[in-house]
Amino acid sequence: MNPTHLVLGVIGADCHSVGNKILDAYFTEAGFHVTNLGVMVSQDEFIDAAVETDAAAILVSSLYGHGEIDCEGLRAKCVERGLDRILLYVGGNLVVGKTPYAEVEKKFLDMGFNRVFGPQVDLAEVVELLRSDIAAAGRK
Amino acid sequence: MRFEQMAWKDFLAQRLEVLKTWPTGKDVDLDEGLRYQRGIPEPKNFARAMNKAKSGRKTLIQPRAGVALIDDHIRLLRHLETEGTADLLPTTIDAYTRQNRYAEAAVGIEKSTAAGHSLLNGFPAVNHGVSGCRRVTEAVTKPIQVRHGTPDARLLAEISLAGGFTSYEGGGISYNIPYAKKVDLGDSLRAWRYVDRLVGYYEENGISINREPFGPLTGTLLPPFIGHVVAILEGLLALEQGVKSITLGYGQGGNVLQDLAALTSLRELAGEYFAKAGFSDFDLTIVFHQWMGGFPEDEAKAFAVISLGAFVAAAAEVEKIIVKSPHEAMGIPTKEANASGLKATRQVLSMLTDQKICADNDIIRREKELIRNEVRCLMEAVENAAGGDPIQGICRAFAGGLLDIPFAPSIYNRGRVLPARDNEGFIRLFSKGNLPLTDDIMSFHKDRLAERAKAESRPVTFQMVTDDIYAISKSKLIGRPK
Fold first, then answer.
1. What pLDDT band is residue A98 in, cutting at 50, 70 and 90?
2. What ipTM does the predicted assembly reach?
């Protein structure tokens, strides 16, 4: 596992591109090697890129409400492809309609994501969590 | 540039293929569709409503809305027209349909039925077919439009126009570059030529269908002239195919004077470019979109953003405003939240109905002159790249970065233009990429940004752009350093 390599992208048929460009710039600035797949990325494209770069984490964005459909099964597919230690983060407006964050978080943690973020999260906080989660995963 | 109508035999040949792309396509019959449209009561015709708004100097209000299932969608629209007092209704199409991924839309319909609520972010009109669309359009009393983001919207247009919709949003640039990643620009422009020819055919047969290119594009710090050039080009391409009722749009930038200048200049410039190309028989109207960027999470603050947009629409005397909801920061609104955005907008517009707000002063004139010159630079470049063919001109201009939309996802967009706000919140260019703007114009942009950089004691960088993108969601217009 390469502790500085991240795979980034917006999942499914979602074309929200602004935040993606900002995340790319932010994580690069924070010292990570970011493989940014851009918008409209399939689960297989995420996994292919993670295998290729031996990434420590896949960062999935979704802003258009279909996150629930698009993200289902990603963890199982990662395990299938031998990525058994990879961290999965997801963030954005993940479901259709205003829903309490705790409910959304539970839904995506149950799906196998390690961290779940709302749209207004402070990116500095995400970088801190990512560093400590990667360090912990490396010790396993 | 030469403007030529698509040959009817080419249209019909293509049509056979288009209707085969999903099983519901076989239910579309052009003549039956015309007969059905003739039976729609006049007050429900969108083109007529826009025309009446113009002659009566009214600003009509319209929400965005769409869910997966027909009955739920009807309930949603009825709530928006009764409780929300919407003048015009939408049917927002889900993101799978927009990418022609109808099989995935079908899964979304199934899962929504099972879950008892919509898991899709819009109404999958192609899957529901002509009869499903008719159930929707017959259930409401207001004119109703298809709103989406579909690069190849040919089948959706066939089904929804035969299904009783009387307005169709989109265009070959505005529904590709901000909405797709790998769709060839020439392909989307040719697909939209088909859509415009279809609308032209309805027009020739006495059915007026309104067309609305999507003005705000990426909705993120878009300098007015970039959106205006796209709107004018898509307007020309629509008129070329026989469209008569055309509504051009612009999204709220946040600086009130820049927004007023942009809205008045859009109407003037489009009229001039259309006339110059030899078109005279058209009905041009203007739509203003409330803030398309990130919203504050706090609902009271969101209402403030919505109300400021409503004020600008009234001051600029536009025919239509597209309304946001207090749930915008969280994604798709409930029907109640959607109606409350409409009510807030209605309140502002009503209070301003009898007031004449002067949308003209020295600063607005300066901004209008700037926009006019910027638009001219880009339109000339497209003209020169066209070799007579507007579609070729547009494709070459994007390939060379002579047209470039900031923050767009498409690989056919250079993406080298970076905007930022100046010290008064006007949207300027920090990097022009390859846009063919004169040195005079660029030195104005640079001077204005230098003023802000000095005031904030920091250089103009990507960080400043990022700060501006999040500023409104954090209750400011300009992203000042902490």
1. confident
2. 0.85
Q: How many domains does chain B have?
A: 1
CB contact under 8 A, A25 and B466: yes
Nearest to B177 by CA among B138, B113, B220, B235: B220
Question: Has residue A140 been placed in a domain?
Answer: no
Query: What domain range is A36 assigned to?
Result: 2-135
Give contacts of A14 with chain B, Cβ < 8 Å: 95
In B, which residues are within 8 Å of A97 by CB distance? 117-118, 327, 330-334
Q: What is the pLDDT of residues B377-413, one digit of tens each?
A: 999 999 999 999 999 999 999 999 999 999 999 999 9
Q: Which site among B330, B338, B405 would you substitute to test the A interface, given the most A Cβ atoms closer than 10 Å to its Cβ? A: B330
Residue numbers of the domain that contains B126: 8-352
Q: Give the pTM.
A: 0.95
Of B457, B402, B412, B406, the C-alpha closest to B428 is B406
Nearest chain B CA: its distance from A113 CA (Å): 20
- CATH number (domain holding residue B210): 3.20.20.240
Task: Let me know if residue A16 belongs to a domain.
Answer: yes
Distance between start and end Cα atoms, chain B: 50
Residue A66 annotated among the catalytic residues of the structure: no
CATH number for the domain that contains residue A25: 3.40.50.280
Nearest chain A alpha carbon to B461 = A25
- Is residue B268 domain-resident? yes
DSSP B221: S
Beta bridge partners of residue B419, listed in sequence order? B429
Residue B211, H or E segment: strand B210-212
Contact of B180 with chain A, judged by CB distance below 8 Å, is answered with: yes
At how many degrees (to 10) do helices B70-82 and B125-139 cross? 40
Q: Decide which of B161 and A65 is more confident.
A: B161
- Interface residue A135 vs chain B (CB under 8 A): no
Minimal C-alpha gap between A138 and chain B (Å)? 32
Number of domains making up chain A: 1
